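Incident log, structure service

09:12 report received: a user says their structure output differs between two submissions of the same chain.
09:20 pulled the input from the user's history:
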Amino acid sequence: MDRQAKLQELFDKYQLGVNYHKQGELESAEAIYREVLQFIPNHPDVLHMLGLAIYEQGNPENAVELIDRSIRLNPQQPGFHKHLAVVYLEMQQYEQAITCVKNAIALKPDYAAAYNLLGNIYQAQKDLTQALSSYQKAGELEPNSAEFRHNLGSVYQKLEDFTSAIPHHLKAIELQPDFAIAHNFLANAYHRLGERQKALTHWQIAVELAPQAPEIRCNLGLALLLEGDFNRGWQEYEWRLKTQALKKFDLKTPMWQGQDLQGKSIYLWSEQGLGDTIQFARYAWELKRRGAQVTLGVNKGLISLFTDCVTEKFQVVDGLRSKVYEHDYHVSVMSLPRIFGTDLTNIPQQIPYVTVAKIKTAIEPTDNYKIGIVWASKKTASQYTRKTCTPELFMDFLALGKVSLYSLQVGEDRSLITPWLKEDNVSDLSGELFNFADTAQFIAQLDLIITVDTAVAHLAGAMGKPTWLLLSYMPDWRWLLNRQDTPWYPTMRLFRQSKLNDWASVFTQVKEQLIKVLAGSDPVFPVDNKSGGEVSHQEIANQLSVIEQKKLDKKDITELLAKGLTHYQKQELSLAESYYQQVLEIEPQHPEALHILGLIACQENKPGLAIALLQRAIQQNPSAVNYYQNLALVYEKTGNLPEAIAVYQQAINLQPHKGELFSGLADCYRQQAQIKEAIQAYTQAIKLQVTHLDLYLSLGKIYEQENQLEQALAVYRQALKYHPNSGCLHNLMGIIYQYQGKIEQASAASSAVVSQYGPR
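09:34 re-ran on a clean worker, output below:
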């Protein structure tokens, strides 16, 4: 066989390997790549593909060596550098990954996928500012990538900027309607902003698109539990056991699902936080009543608490060192509410089930009202920001007189109390708190516990201690909604944020109630929930009947909204309209149905109807900024610029940090020839969206039209900081320089343009 024929044979074999690779048959692909390399051992493409195949089989160390060899043989191939960065990211060698991906970008400045990967690396490093910038660049280079837009939204969510996240997830879904993860993230953003109906709709769509995705099913379960729909919520929440984080608990011995336990042993394991273990340990007694020998595996910080302080004994062991296989059954404590069929009427209520028999370390006697305080959750917890305030907010209580504050805060935030320890009535107990039995000792001596949502709240509740719980705007599922009490702990009262991150209003409520308590009122004060507080069993039955009917209506609405949205995203407008009209038949003023019908009317060139529908949507949900934005766009489309400007200004009053609103406002001013106002609006839009090239171009264009060439150049120079490779910017600057007679600068700008658009 001549050389040419042999090379053709090897090439065909290599292509066969690539085909196997694409089909996921990695071992077959690897074997073919190795066979080809026996004849051409230094072929960079084959080495590169072999490295990828080995990486995808879970061997990143060997993959690094192979891909690095391919780079040494062909250092000008940007894809090689990018894929080496992928492997380093998997190995958590972030600096090496950054170096590799930057090498790829240096070779190919418009490499959108490389910028996206760079964003992934920065996210892994928790450098969210750099991640945001990288994803924005990726989106600018490839604006029709659903993945890039979704990633940008995900970073905004990590930055707690849910309003900014939503448009990016919506755009990702518009580009890829079956993007289940984007629906999942969009639902979370809506949820955090309190738009619960939208959140449920998108979680249900996500479940329809990816019914086997455990994270999505779990999120839907948590949302349903928060709504009080325990029947469906527990079922969906059980999917958490299939998530990657909990697969390690997929034990070989049978998981208990309600079988007869008489004479059987059962091991209860804890999968989540310490507070969850304290809350759901109450089910251990339910199992004992069924004749089981119960062993509870817990975090070592809880061992002494459950050994010494529970009212009815069972075996307690260190969860990390337990012998699960010695028991007939095992089960997560978090699965027990589902198995026992727990709903709002039958939560086990053996409070207190944690007691302190003997005080070992006494608090110094005082006639003051003794309040234990906690202001922060664990620093490493995913919800740390949401569940944390500052100790300073508690210090206002001292001005009421006859109050002593005792810090039960542990962890990194415990030292934040230090500036107030000079006060006679402020004490730091953290130095005495080595485990939860120690914490229980001090809780037992206090009159009231005021705490954010931490394990201390559960401990105090389990002890039957009067406890005031400070909750975020959208709290953890167990605290439900629109009520001041909780069926889990009868001596606990809830103080809720009225809007996102608004701790000030929470402490105003607490202070007002504390004044009453200091005057002699019971800290476990009567509540005025929407259900009417304490009710008889018959009243409960009647209310549940009404609730069930509402659930049916709500379920219908949720399904109709989901179907309508699916058709709307596919631009099947007639079908979408029919579903949203059905929503209005059940709930005539449903804001989102009115909103989407308005958008459909606009697309069907019915601006009058669109305006009327969007105005009705705003009346029903006056805080929905996107409703105003879309109404303004309709006015702008019809040429009614004064109305568009007025609506944009209303939206800006609601959301003054949303750059898109200032951009839209600026466009309207420009069309009305209100140059000064347009310049101001574009300038503000740029401050909020510093990497958006089109804003700089629009502002620069205005300055050029006004013959303010130096101002135009200043804008373009600012844009170059974020878009140094923009041929458009260099070209515009070159034209201005040429007009000004600055030949040298014009030539430099022209050269920059050529370098961008020349051969690659």
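09:41 both user submissions now match this output. Likely a transient worker issue. Closing.
09:42 reviewer note: Residues 117 and 369 are 56 Å apart (CA to CA). The chain has four domains: 3-225, 251-339, 369-518, 548-757.
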